[in-house]
Amino acid sequence: RDVERSRGLGDVYKRQKMGLYELEDFLTVTSERIDHVKITTTQILNCPEIWLKKKIAVYKKYKVQPYLDHTYFMKAYEVGEVDKAIVLGKELGFEYIEFMSTYKDVPEEDLFRWRKLSKELGLNMFYEHHPKRNWFKSSDEESSAFADIISMAKPFIDDGAIMLVLDHEEFELQNNEGKVNYKEIIDYFGKEKIIKSIPIFCVKDMI
């Protein structure tokens, strides 16, 4: 927020069980350094609705915004219930949802409809770009061409996504293959739209 820092999304894994009181105590110390927190999909699927709403309210009390991450989108897509999942997320109190790269496996008209629905409900969007293997599990471990990252991210950015998140696995593969010049993406979208996902700096709520 008002503190100068590197731009990035990341995960701090809190493996001990935190109830609502422990969470509030945790946030009194840490909230000034956290903008967003990822609520894991298993938690949304398995926890009582009233408890989830209370937990989301605690985060918002400390100006930390929970978001529905790309796994939530993937799980909903697998069962053909993305529309319902978006509506449910809003009803639970979320204000942010993350979509991901689908490599033309999902029809563009469906992606357009889900972006439109998200906007109509007042859900802010992130677009996270993953290596192809994260959507097609049988794919080889290889990084994405920068032109492909731009072409898949552009419809989301054009429709109001507030940031393009580059997944940490994409960074790792790019670096391993010597493709470390991101100037093309930065020049196209502007560096204020691009976030790197790394395994530290923000909180992933696992329980």
Architecture overview:
The chain has helices at residues 20-30, 41-46, 49-61, 70-78, 82-92, 108-121, 146-158, 168-176, 183-189; strands at residues 9-13, 36-39, 65-68, 96-100, 124-129, 163-166, 194-205. With 207 residues, it is of the alpha/beta class. Helix 1 packs parallel to helix 3 (49-61), helix 5 runs parallel beside helix 6 and helix 7 (146-158) packs parallel to helix 9 (183-189). The chain is globular and about 45 Å long. Residues 1-16 and 200-204 have low confidence and may be disordered.
Q: Report the total helices.
A: 9
Radius of gyration (Å)? 17 Å
Cα separation of the termini: 25 Å
Shape: globular
Mean pLDDT: 86
H/E series: EHEHHEHHEHEHEHHE
Fraction of residues in H or I helices: 40-55%
Properties at a glance:
single chain; 207 residues; alpha/beta; 19% strand
Summary, kept brief:
With 207 residues, this protein is α/β, with parallel strands linked by helices. The protein contains nine helices and seven strands; from the N terminus they run E-H-E-H-H-E-H-H-E-H-E-H-E-H-H-E.
